[in-house]
Hints:
Elements lengths: L11 H10 L9 H53 L9 H55 L7 H24 L4 H33 L11 H5 L7 H28 L6 H4 L4 H18 L6 H29 L7 H35 L5 H24 L10 H6 L5 H4 L1 H24 L2 H4 L18 H18 L4 H34 L4 H25 L2 H4 L7 H4 L21 H29 L1 H5 L15 H20 L2 H24 L7 H18 L11 H10 L3 H17 L7 H9 L6
Helix pairs in contact: 3-4, 3-5, 4-5, 4-7, 5-7, 5-9, 9-10, 9-11, 10-11, 10-12, 11-12, 15-17, 15-18, 17-18, 17-19, 18-19, 18-22, 19-22, 19-24, 22-24, 22-25, 25-27, 26-27, 28-29
Amino acid sequence: MDSLPAPSHLSPSALSFLDGKFHTNDVLSEASTLVAELQTQCSELDRSLNESTRRLGEGLSAYTSFSDDVNDRLSALASTCSSNAVPDGGRGEEGDGKGFREELAALAKEVARLENVRVYAETALKLNTLIGDIEDAVSHTINKHLRKPSSQNSEEPRLVAINMLKTTEGLLTSITKTQPQWKRLLSAADHRVDRALAILRPQAIADHQALLASLGWPPPLSSLASANQGLNPLLRMQADVRLKYSGNFLALCNLRELQRQRKCRQLEGHDREVARRQPLWVIEELANPLSLGSQRHFSKWIDKPEFIFTLVYKITSDYVDSMDEMLQLLIDEAKVIGYSCREEWISAMVTSLSTYLAKEIFPSYISQLEEESVTGIQSSARISWLHLIDLMIAFDKRIKSLVERSGILLFSDDNGMLQRISSLSVFCDRPDWLDLWAEIELGDALDKLKPDIEDENNWRKKVEAAVLSSCTDILKSPLISSAFLRHLSAVIERCRSLPSVTLRSKFLRLAGVPIIRKFFDSILVRCQEAEGLTALADDDAVIKVAVSNNAAHYFESALREWSEDVFFLEMDLDLDDKAELPSNADRNGEVLSESSGRVILDDEIKKLEDFRTEWVERISLVILRGFDARSRNYIKNKRQWQKVEEGWTVSKTLIDALDYLQSKMSVVEEALNSRDFVGVWRSLAAGIDQLIFNGILISSVKFHNGGVERFSSDIGVLFGVFGAWCLRPEGFFPKSSEGLKLLKLNENRVQECLAGGKRWLKENGIRHLTVTEAEKVVKNRVFSS
């Protein structure tokens, strides 16, 4: 028996095999038995190969015989056609022609079928030959590694196998497009190719790992500070080693590209995104040893994750430039389209970190949270969770700047790239963790807001310079609205770091929208309390409602400005948002609505807008009721319009109502923001206009000349009250103004009005009264003889 070569000449796979069989000196005596078993296996493989060769020969002989038979039949058909001999078969001429056509059609079908069989057989034979050559090349590669692992020609059989695999894949792709019905042939060929790849790929990766190990990769972590100063082993390769490494690098890239093409073909008609973007194996083999070496330190830093992020960033940043400088040329030479060495290196390191976080860090924190929920004892688990999220967000920002340093711009819609370089991508595979994070984030924000809500000073003091870029009016907002916006903004900023639009939308719904609703509930409760105690009869209650309205207006203006940001607009385009939200209930059990085709904040903005409109109307209604109560005697006194009240500019019975109106409006104007105040006085003006018109002008009142003069004076004073807020107050009292205009007509003009109808009203600028209302007004006019 020949002696084995020196251990240094054996390949890693051969050494591993021998170590597994002879792990102690006691089993060396079984070497002869192992040799006999290996020889038996080789004999069986040879026998199997001979049997396959024999079966192939029989198949070819059968095909030759079949082909000769087809050729004979075609020759007979040709001779029949040339002699125009049609067998009568006992039938007439018409029947003879029909039978010949039917036989000819059947024969044509048979010829087409035979042609398909021929093409199928030739294709199968070609595939069998190619795959057989692949299997031989793979076997030759393994044998060379077992016998001559240090030979410089060890790459040649692998390159041959890869080239044959490319040829085979091209043929299989052609079959898939032209003959998709040959599913069994494709399946059988893929099965054999997959078996060859299952042997070739691990061996190629093992050889690459061995080559890297011989180069001194991975370098010790202590050399990180000098990674760019020449201690990177890849930068210290000699020319012959560099050539060998380049060949190995290209072979592994070609093998990976071949695997990608196969996946794309096999997933034709399905989701091919899985196969289109796969990491580069060569970069993974550089990153994985460093990651494994680092994880020995990670286990000591479970309670201090900031050290983990610092070390990973240090490794990533120290080697990224040298990797990019050396390996990008090889990637371009391998014709791997759409890949950047810089991106792949960063992605590999971040992926390893995310994997460790998902396997070790997050489960540890979740177990602490579960223990806290069971025992009911408050611990630091939630604080630790939020601290970890802060570290991840800060790490992702540094990584993003590292990617963009080379001029690569990252866009928010490039979710695939963002996920590969974001440690927060752990939430893509674990949406339940995202729910937990949103719950913790929301609880933390509400806990911080609770003392702010209970502090009355935050409702009394105003926000300084509360002017938004979209609003030039000082909204007189209390500090509480600024506190809510500050916490909501913090949640949104953390949400921006998530690498997926779907995750951002879901997180914002779970953690951001409930904060808005908490704000809405707070201002609503204060308004209801004010209304319940005094029905808004006193000034303090009105001021309390006005302050809540100011807060709502300021909050709404901020949300409108935010909703115009691309961050929110792109959520509108996310069609998978509803599918990603199995449950839309917040932590208090309230259902979160989903707006299809609208910005995520639109529902909340609409609720705040409706809130303001409702309470502006209530303030107006309360003041209108007070004015009505104080002007009741004025409206019911019908005799006062028959004479002039000497010495009075305004009726005595109207003075109290006007004083109340002016007093209340001064309070509202001082407390309420100017935009909502406009709504108050306009609504109030419309109510008073209707009150005066219905109670005086179209009631059974007789207006003499003195009464018209008196009514005109009263209305002028009323207009003067509203003149402080507009230039033409009579325009907001359309019915009263036009009724007074009709009362001032002389007797002839009154008759024209009664006769002219709608056309006369339109010609004389009476546009807010109907013909019936106008007739009632002018009929109440009494002219003295």
